[in-house]
Amino acid sequence: MAGNENTVPQADHLTVFFASQTGNAESISRNIYEQAQERGFKSFHYALNDHAKVDWDKEDCLVFVVSTTGDGDPPDNSTKFWRHLRKLKGVGLTKAKYTILGLGDTNYDNFCQTAKRLDTRLQELGASSFYPRGLADDATGLEETVDPWIKNLWPALAHQVISTPAIHDLPQPHLTSEEEKVVKDIIFKQEQDRKQSASPKLLPKTAPAANGRDPIENTIDDLKNLALTPPAIGYKIDIDFSTMANHANLTALPRVPNANLQIADLEADTVSRIPGSIPAFIQTPSKLLMATVNKVQCLTPSDALKRTIAVEFGFEDDVEYAPGDAFGIWAPNNEALVRGVLSALNVSDTAAMKAVRLHGEGIPSHLQSVQSATLLDIFRYAVDLTSPPKKANIRLYAEHASDLADKQKLMFMASKQGADQFNAFRAQSPTFLDIMHTFPSINIPLARIIETLPPMQPRYYSITSSPMSKNGHRRWSCAFNVVTYDLSGGVHRRGVCTPWLDELAGQVPFGKAVTTGLTTQRLPVFLKPNETRFNLPSDTTKPVIMIGPGTGVAPFMGFLEHRAEQRLIKKRLVNIGSGPRQHLDDHFGDMWLFFGCRHRERDWLFREQMETYKRDGVLTELQLAVSREENVPNSAKYVQDMMRNQGKSIWNLIHKKGATIYVCGDAKGMAKAVHDELVSILVDHGGYEKMAAIMELNTWAQEKRYLRDLV
Ligand SMILES: Cc1cc2nc3c(=O)[nH]c(=O)nc-3n(C[C@H](O)[C@H](O)[C@H](O)COP(=O)(O)O)c2cc1C
């Protein structure tokens, strides 16, 4: 079968496209692509932004695997494609046959929006679907939909390319369990054979230097750093496997991803680095800036539930941006964790500092730019060591566990029968190191690990400053909660970026902003292209309603600073001008802010600034919701409660004055409650039927009068 030239004389074309933000759609689409190749298709695999590599109207079948991000938005590696799709006219894709696998999460309002939009648009353009769309839900487990969808894709394709002899020779997808086992064994054996011939060996302990220099000469600082950071050991994750014995047969085991990646040794001094020391393979969607840390302030006292800090970054070039924009930071994995992982994989410090190149047909897109980097940097910056594992990875680790008990447990967790144990394991947020520590007999080639770990993602923060303020084009401020928490059994967890930034910034205590003695290290930042237009209306007379509890208030602090600057300029102009004097407020619409905290004394972020803006007339109304204090005057528990109290005024601002509504913060709880409250306001004060109110909000969202920036 797979790859056998004799039984597969001619294959048809299959192009698999993906749009992926955090790697799920990319790895699932690669799996489909690899299976297609094994089944004799001439297949291709591209990110949607590379859509031009394929003549869509000539291809036989197109498979799209697309996730949804943000607030129903398409992933970054498909935005160019969407612009292209918008420009297409008429029914220009009548020959194209397609199917879509959407990935999403029902905890978000716009479940699988990208898949649904793509389907509608392709239909409009005359393309025809050859196999029903699948929508997989991360809330219940993607596999539930993904596995059967892929399994049934093949007979659907066979039907499409009925003239292709190759397809008839292949085992039909509806197999008996006995047949399935035989097929799996063959695939497993083939993979083992391929691994043995292709899997790269671990790096030699010493490497000859072609130019006569010590290979580690250039990286002495890194080595010093290594010596300063003891490797983490990892936690042993305790899971109850007592029910395992009840299941003799394991079903729905995910397929082990193909081994494609090879690691080639290079000379150490060929490692290219951007000054300021970040690896050249990091690719950002806009210009990378190496920023200084100008200012740091801790906004919450030590008895607050969360530690919130505000950081101002500075850079030399002027950058065009608007209040409401966000920027990305490319943070490394925690150094002790990286050291722990390398140590668990028996990679010596010298080997970790050696330059390598990653290559191989069909390797994940985030690894294709790794042409010259140390293993240390690959584990720091290219792969994600902290996201909970996917089933396919657990299955892979099972294959490489030498101890029978480890193998059985891992295989069980990868199966349908072990779903409870798998979920309990993931709920502990195990790092890759924890997995190695919990199942110590896993002995897996380095290349397999690098290619199967998810890609590292930059972290995004809303800009809280205005480009109109002093030096505004050369600085961005942001505010965030430092993500660290403890689980039972003494397990300590931390986010990737926020604790790193907090530690770099010196973990300043609550109080005034600190501007001296800060780190001299430069940090990689870049502007996030703003696709949602979460910006102030261009007509300054239009009112804005801002809803942002907690750190969701961040972009609104930028809006307010911007408006304060606009008012100042207008005031000066009015004072010099000779025309009729107008009141300042005639030029600027109302600004309403709904903010929420637990305790006014502990987590009322930006209190001083908010009160100053209110006093100066920049902020028309400040509506404060306090959830954990009794009897706060004019206050309710949550922002949606405050909105209910102000329902009539909100309706008037929207209806009579054309206000824009902005919501920023938690997508799952707050944004849903705020959305429901807006529906109620339209019903109670605007006289809408409930259904009509929901449709009206949808229209406003399309017209960018109801904007949401959610996480
Ligand atoms: C910040 C964020 C926003 C998301 N927004 C949505 C959404 O609006 N609708 C949805 O159905 N899923 C949403 N999801 C869920 C993802 O689509 C889902 O986790 C998917 O598996 C990610 O696939 P990817 O790794 O290929 O991007 C969101 C996930 C994140 C992390």
Automatic annotation (TrEMBL):
Domain FAD-binding FR-type: 286-537
Chain segments carrying region Disordered: 192-215
Top-level taxonomic group: Eukaryota
Database matches in InterPro entries: CysJ-like_FAD-binding, FAD-bd_FR_type, Flavdoxin-like, Flavodoxin/NO_synth, Flavoprot_Pyr_Nucl_cyt_Rdtase, Flavoprotein-like_sf, FNR_nucleotide-bd, NADPH_Cyt_P450_Rdtase_alpha
EC number from the UniProt entry: 1.16.1.8
Alphabetical keyword list: Amino-acid biosynthesis, FAD, Flavoprotein, FMN, Methionine biosynthesis, NADP, Oxidoreductase, S-adenosyl-L-methionine
Keyword Cell division in record: no
Keyword Oxidoreductase: yes
Domain Flavodoxin-like: 14-154
PROSITE patterns attached to this UniProt entry: FAD_FR, FLAVODOXIN_LIKE
Organism this protein belongs to: Linnemannia gamsii
Protein name (database record): Methionine synthase reductase
